[in-house]
Amino acid sequence: MCVYKGKEIPARACVSAKSNMKRLSPVIKKAWERMDELKDRALELIAKRIWTKK
Q: What is the pTM of this model?
């Protein structure tokens, strides 16, 4: 489980070996730590696409 803003959030990944999971875990953790920034960037990109289609 990942913890984000005090809440546990389940995360799944299909990996073929335990060593792959060990390499993937820090990537997932960093993404969760930057979730607010990533969410804001995603919303900006969505807004740009909406406004440029008109």
A: 0.52
